[in-house]
Amino acid sequence: MHGAAFSLRLRLLLLIAVALLPALAVSWQNAEARRSDAIEAVHHDTLRSAEAATMAARGSFETTRQLLLFIGGSARAHSLTNATCADALPASDGTARLLSGIGIIRSDGIVACSSNPVPANFSVAGTSSFTRALASGRFAVGDFSVSRLTGQPTVGVMQPIFHPNGTLALLVGGAVDLRVLGQAVAMGTPGGSVVTVFDRHGTILTRQPGHDPWVGTVLPLDALVDRLGSLGGTVESNGVDGERRVYATLPMLPGEGEVYVSVGTPLAAALFPIEAAFRRDLLTVAAVGALAFALAWFASARWVAKPLQRLGAAARQLADGHLDARTGLRHDPGEVGRLAQSFDDMAGSVQHAADGERAARRELQTAHDKLAELDRFRRSFVNSAAHELSNPLTPMVLQIERLHSERLGLLNPAQRRAMDMVDRNALRLQHLVRDVLDAARLQGDGLALECRPVDLAPLIAEAAEQFREPAREGGLALTAHAAPRLVVDADPARVSQVLFNLLSNALKFTPRGGRVRLEAVREGETAVVRVRDDGIGFAAEEAPRLFQSFSRLKQSVTASGTGLGLFICKGIVERHGGTMWAESEGPGQGAIFGFALPLLGVGVPRPLPGSLVEPAAPAPTVAAAKGPFAVLRREADASPEPEARTGPWANGPA
């Protein structure tokens, strides 16, 4: 009972846990809503930060472009020489800001003047900024490269200067200080954000914070595709440091696809307060649940477990036979009190019923003993009566046969008709005695079997041959078929008795013009024998009593028979370890009577003697037909068993 009490307590705790589930669901739903809002806010703020950073970068480059235009457009720029221009360029007085060096370049790419010392005839014709400026005719930004003069990573910018007639006069270029560029772009972005400037190849020009380790690094291909594919929008992606961020990317110069500004905001920082709040909610629910569990556990021990243990103890005492066991609990209005009252009332009723049952059992035992004595007397009487009837019947049948065969003298027609009637009724009485004896032996385990390996095919052929002539005289078509090597361990005489009885019934209850089919086939590890007919059939509700002793079908009460035939057949088959059944689709639809016997040596070949054709007894012969009553007689032998008959005089219906 302790286990049952624990089970109830556990169920109470489970109910409390289920009651806590809505609180957990609400906490999770609120956290998901806050998380969704926070992510949406991160996307929005990141895009705004990217726009601000891009505007800052554009402002710096626009200032640089105006400076280059100013230098290129001044009259002094056209008269500078390598000896005088270095002092005149603004880089020397700190006004260049973003540029670390400024130079004036001829249209063939030769540097005419530079704020930094350059070799004679130094050419920048192969740089990307020079090429793009010549191709576009406007301010151009080059690719990332390492300066041949300073050895520092740079990005070149170039501004073409034209004559009033539209021809190219010269170009003014410079090297962008990437650190200054990063500081200018990152100015004003929220703390924790990462600002990256990269070119169209994905090469990082500057990254804030942590500028130096990342300059010149190439973005992974998937990150580059995400950034360029989401221009003007946002995307969640992993940065070069592996951290998950929301990125917004914009082109640095309007109409230019050469340099891009990307701002990344880490998701973890934005979601941290929400996750912390959710964890606090979980801890709160867990604390409340633990307190509720503790209270429920100790309260149930007093008000549930102990009363149930006392109920269990009383139930065990009652089960052990102590009918005076009671719970001893108060019968209060509560559930446990009502349960205790019901148990005590039940125990009292059981005790009262047990007293009455013992008295009834004594009376029943007395009646049972009397019935057993009557049954033993009935069986003894039936056996004795059958034996006593059988003893005079055998010589009487033999003498009738002698008279019938006219061995003792010729008979006139009236005497022959009388002898036919006496012969038929003597044989019918002999069959009745035999059936009663077999039924008594089956009920008393006195039916002995002489089993040996038997092939069913010869028995099937013999049975069909015995009934072929009676079937022809009755206007019936009789066919038989047996599969080869259906070897069973059986008493051939008893199996033949079953076959003869089934065929006799089939011919008896099949009208003229019908068919009777006898077949034996192998199904799995059994030999199955079926007798099919087109006879009167039977209703489904009559099937259960077909194999009962002295049972007759409603539509066959006018036919002769004892009602023991199928009862005996079923007993013989079951004594062989087999089964027997009957099938019909209804009255007038014919019937199938079949039985199954286990095959001998299935899966393990076993040598069998001879050809396996071992007849059950000497083959019967057909005597002279007498109207519709064709009598099958056996040749004289030592067996006291009566002759087998076929046709409408056999053992009776199932």
Written description of the protein model:
With 654 residues, the protein is of the alpha+beta class. Helix content is 48%, strand content 18%. The protein has helices spanning 2-73, 75-79, 85-88, 128-136, 178-186, 211-214, 221-229, 267-319, 335-404, 413-443, 456-473, 492-508, 565-575; strands spanning 99-105, 111-114, 140-146, 153-162, 168-176, 194-199, 204-208, 234-238, 244-251, 259-266, 452-455, 477-482, 487-490, 515-523, 526-533, 579-583, 591-598, 621-622, 632-633. Strands 2-1-5-4-3 form a five-stranded antiparallel sheet, with helices on both faces. Strands 7-6-10-9-8 form a five-stranded antiparallel sheet. A hairpin with a 5-residue loop joins strand 1 (99-105) and strand 2 (111-114). Helix 8 packs across helix 9, helix 10 packs across helix 13 (565-575) and helix 11 runs parallel beside helix 12. The protein is elongated and about 170 Å long.
Distance between the termini: 56 Å
Structural class: alpha+beta
Rounded to an integer, what's the Rg over CA atoms?
Answer: 57 Å
Low-confidence stretches: 91-95, 603-654
The biggest sheet, with number of strands, parallel, antiparallel or mixed sense and barrel status, is: 5 strands, antiparallel
Q: How large is the share of residues in beta strands?
A: 15-25%
Number of strands: 19
What is the tally of helical segments?
13
| Mean residue pLDDT | 76
Helix content: 40-55%
For the biggest β-sheet, the strand order reads: 2-1-5-4-3
Shape: elongated
